[in-house]
Every structure is written in C-alpha cells, then in structure tokens.
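Can't paste images in this forum, so I'm doing it all in text. The chain is below; anyone willing to post the predicted structure tokens underneath?
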Amino acid sequence: MFAMILRICLVAGLLIDGSVALISLVAPALLAPLFDIPVRDPIAVLIGGGEFAVVALVYALLLRDVDRFRPFLWLVALDQTFAVVLPVVAMARGDLPATWKTVGPLPLSAVLTLAFVLGATRKRTPAA
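Text version of the structure:
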C-alpha cells in the first residue's frame, strides 16, 4: 500500500517540477500570473528552469525503479523541503506576495517531503 502512495507522490512531484521547468524554459513571463513568482532576472529563471528539469528527471528515474534508486528519494525530499521552507522565509521577509498561489501548495509539499523521507528510510521491498 505504501509503495502505491509513494508512486502517487512521485508522480505529483514530477508534474510539479516538470511544469515549472517547462514554463521557466519556454514561457518565463507566465511564472508571475500562474505561480506568483516575480521574474526579476530572466537568466536566473532559465537557470532555475534547468534545475527543475534535472529534478523532474530524478522523479522519472525513481518512478522506473524505486527500490534500485531509493537513495535518490533523499534528493526529492530535499527538493520538496525547499519548496516549503524558501517561500515561508521569503514571505516572512515580505519578498513574495502571500496569495493562495504561494501559500496553497505548502501543505502538499510538506506531505510529499514526509512521504519521500519515509520511503527513503524504509527497507527495500522483497522481490516478488
């Protein structure tokens, strides 16, 4: 049962990071209206989009074989931890608008972090 929940969480992470990567690389002007992410430096957005694309590939790799690539769950847990911590710190400093687009995904990212940490600390499932 947990394996299925973990796979659903991995798909959610892939969709999140993949969509942010795609928008950052193809249409960075849409970041502000869609996600309330102000675009101050277009080059930084392109670099960030590339980073999101790499993490999306890690999610895809994990979806292929979670047991084989289990250590990479720590990377995606860190990815989702940053998705929680960085907006909270930015909002506390007044850098980002505190709208539902900024605050709304924080609980989902926290749940994904927890699922990935639990998945990383679980023992390998026996071969069927």
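Helices lie at 2-26, 31-35, 42-64, 73-93, 100-103, 106-121. The chain has one domain: 2-121.
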